Amino acid sequence: MTQAATNVEQDDAAPVESVDLRKEFEAVDIASVLAQLDKELIGLVPVKTRIREIASLLLVERIRRKMALASTFPTLHMSFTGNPGTGKTTVALRMANILHRLGFVRRGHVISVTRDDLVGQYIGHTAPKTKEILKKAMGGVLFIDEAYYLYRPENERDYGQEAIEILLQIMESQREDLVVILAGYGDRMEKFFQSNPGFRSRIAHHIDFPDYSETELLSIAELMLSEQNYLMSPEAREAFVRYIAIRKTQPLFSNARSIRNALDRIRLRQANRLVGRLDGVLTSAEVMSIEAADVLASRVFSDGPGMPGTVA
Amino acid sequence: MRITQGCFSFLPDLTDAQITAQVQYCLDKGWAVNIEFTDDPHPRNTYWDMWGLPMFDLRDAAGIMRELAECRRVYGERYIRISGFDSSHGWESVRLSFLVNRPKEEPGFRLDRQESGGRNIRYSTHGYAAVRPEGERYGS
Q1: In chain A, where does DSSP find H-type helix?
Q2: Lowest-confidence region among A7-11, A88-92, A164-168, A269-273
Q3: Is pLDDT of A198 > 60?
Q4: How far is CA A86 from CA A40, A83, A245, in A?
Q5: On chain B, which terminus has fewer CB atoms closer than 10 Å, C or N?
Q6: Residues of B whose CB is below 8 A from A135
Q7: Distance between CA atoms of residues B136 and B41, nearest Å
Q8: Are A134 and B57 within 8 A, CB to CB?
Q9: Among A195, A190, A219, A194, which Cα is nearest to A206's?
Q10: How many CA within 13 A on the CB side of residue A128?
Q11: What is the mean pLDDT of residues A127-137?
Q12: Are strands B79-86 and B32-38 parallel, antiparallel or unpaired?
């Protein structure tokens, strides 16, 4: 409400001649959001650079609006491409926060949807469903995960096309009310944009998320563990480095998500080990610490590199 | 005759900016906002048709204003009202309701007096527009 109120004031006020950039920068306080992004997200340097650039652009755009120099509302729709587990959803949440602070979306909430939420099951079901979601997302960010599933070229009577048309129409006509972020894996998004040129031209910012390096994955693991009050012993750490190296060569590797799942299973084994000897007295250090044995019990080590099949 | 009812009935018709602000107030309170329309102007007519479904879980008025624009496009020559429904325990009822659209010409009401037993008089109001069948009452 306050955000909307200040926007109205700005529109009514006479255009200003000069603006104190530092004051403006501190007033919206994006510095803290960017710092938080730096702290909580490991790696992703190109992504952070792009977000910084977009934030600067929006700050300047905001000043231009104050000076009555900007006539049209900027297009803010984005596309995030990258492999699984590279932080697309997390960055989308931060992006909504940045857009909200700069006053480009009124509420700053994120509605995260996939094909199922937009596309109906029978004729006449899709349009109300899509419109319902769009109404909920108004004033915030609509995050469409795996957006390429909307378009199914192999079935020409697929209802996805209807959802795409409604989406494109709103993306154009209500740019002030809604920011759409499409996310998905790089190559498939590329195909999606090729068959739907309308999308590509309506999206201003294409951001590509690179894969994490092995050292980055290790720091992510350590960050996750420290958030949950766990500690890896030096041997466990060394074993985990080897685990990452092998797991990376295996199929279905999804970056940070695989790491999180691996840690969940390691915690499981650690708990099992602790419960295994019921007679002792547990110290808090023991409950916190993860030993090499917990890591080495993983099936990844026994399967060896490049082995297909299930992953433990 | 300009018909008034609900909230803000003593004010001139609200502008779209004012309607947006009222709708946003409802949403900030957590009420579900509905759009209803009718072409029977009688004050005792409580059965209005609903435009689409009740809109739960919205955060911003823009979505409702879009629906209202659509409703006005289709039923511009009818009465349209917006209501805010509070679903919280103990209320479970409409908390706010106001007119947002009216026909260009409102013919008003006739007052019928009926002499009944003794010297009693019974009154009834009769909307001129309601003489015609539903859907043909206001021009369109």
Answers
A1: 2-12, 21-28, 30-40, 45-66, 88-101, 115-118, 126-137, 160-173, 186-195, 197-202, 214-227, 234-249, 255-276, 284-288, 292-296, 299-303
A2: A7-11
A3: yes
A4: 13, 6, 17
A5: N
A6: 55, 58, 63-64, 66-67
A7: 13
A8: no
A9: A190
A10: 10
A11: 92
A12: antiparallel
User: The tokens 């997390």 sit on which residue?
Assistant: A90
What is the percent of chain A with per-residue pLDDT over 70, rounded to a whole number? Answer: 92
Do the Cβ atoms of A39 and A45 come closer than 8 Å?
no
Distances (CA, A) of A22 to A26, A31, A63, B11, B72: 6, 11, 12, 45, 46
Give residue B95's pLDDT. Answer: 94
pLDDT at position A1 is 38
**CB–CB of A135 and B28 under 8 A?**
no
Average pLDDT of the residues in B65-91? 94
Interface mutation target, options A135, A169, A176, chain B, most CBs of B under 10 Å: A135
Interface test with B, best of A11, A125, A136, A169 (most B CBs within 10 A): A136
Rounded-to-5 percentages of helix, strand, coil across chain B: 20, 30, 50
Average pLDDT over residues B36-59: 89
State pTM to two decimals. Answer: 0.80
Closest chain A residue to the Cα of B64, Cα to Cα: A135
- What gap in Å lies between CA A25 and CA A29, rounded to an integer? 6
Integer Cα distance of A204 and A273 in angstroms: 52
Residue A304's pLDDT band, with cuts at 50, 70 and 90, is low
Distance CA A140, CA A170 (A): 13
Average pLDDT over residues A71-82: 86
Q: DSSP for A175-207, please give it.
A: TTT-EEEEEE-HHHHHHHHHH-HHHHHH--EEE
Does the distance separating the beta carbons of B63 and A109 come in below 8 Å? no
Contact call for A135 and B24, based on CB within 8 A: no
> Which tokens is A211 given?
């894969």
